[in-house]
Design a protein that fits this description.
Elements lengths: L3 H19 L2 H5 L2 E8 L5 E3 L1 H14 L5 E10 L4 E10 L13 E10 L2 E11 L6 H15 L1
Parallel strand pairs: 1-6
Antiparallel strand pairs: 1-2, 3-4, 4-5, 5-6
């Protein structure tokens, strides 16, 4: 049985992913705490809801972004009012029907419980390239493909 905080943190993560998949910069930025940090796939680091919004908005306006397919692997507490979530993610490029292994990622979210519920303090999207270990890329890709079948 999962603890209530796990469901709440997973819902927060899902709201972030759903906003990305809808190409909704405002919806994404609103999931973050006031000084929350987002570290993107390319290593870009933005801090705070407004900066995150201003960073993501032109990406959605200027690029056909791929939706995420994600699988939460672990959620655990960090004290009474904080938690860490680990997930794996793949993307299905526009016009395609399968995951592109080259952009698989590990996603880490640190959430804190504030007055108005859970908010993201840190979201990091790290490439899962497994240099020199193609079998790990294929293993992750296959695990994510199971979610779209």
């Amino acid at each position: 049985m999962t603890a209530p905080f796990q469901n709440e943190v997973q819902n927060l993560y899902q709201q972030l992913i759903d906003a990305w998949n809808r190409r909704d910069a405002k919806g994404m930025s609103e999931q973050f705490a006031e000084h929350g940090v987002q570290i993107g796939f390319d290593g870009s680091k933005v801090i705070g809801q407004e900066e995150i919004f201003l960073h993501v908005k032109p990406i959605f306006e200027e690029h056909p972004t791929a939706p995420f397919v994600t699988k939460v692997k672990d959620i655990r507490p960090l004290g009474n009012d904080a938690a860490i979530l680990h997930a794996i993610a793949g993307m299905i490029p526009p016009g395609k029907s399968d995951i592109e292994p080259a952009v698989n990622a590990h996603q880490t979210l640190v959430a804190v419980k504030k007055d108005h519920g859970w908010r993201i303090e840190l979201f990091q999207n790290t490439p899962a390239q497994f240099h020199g270990r193609p079998e790990l890329v294929e293993e992750m890709t296959e695990e994510l493909r199971q979610l779209i079948r």
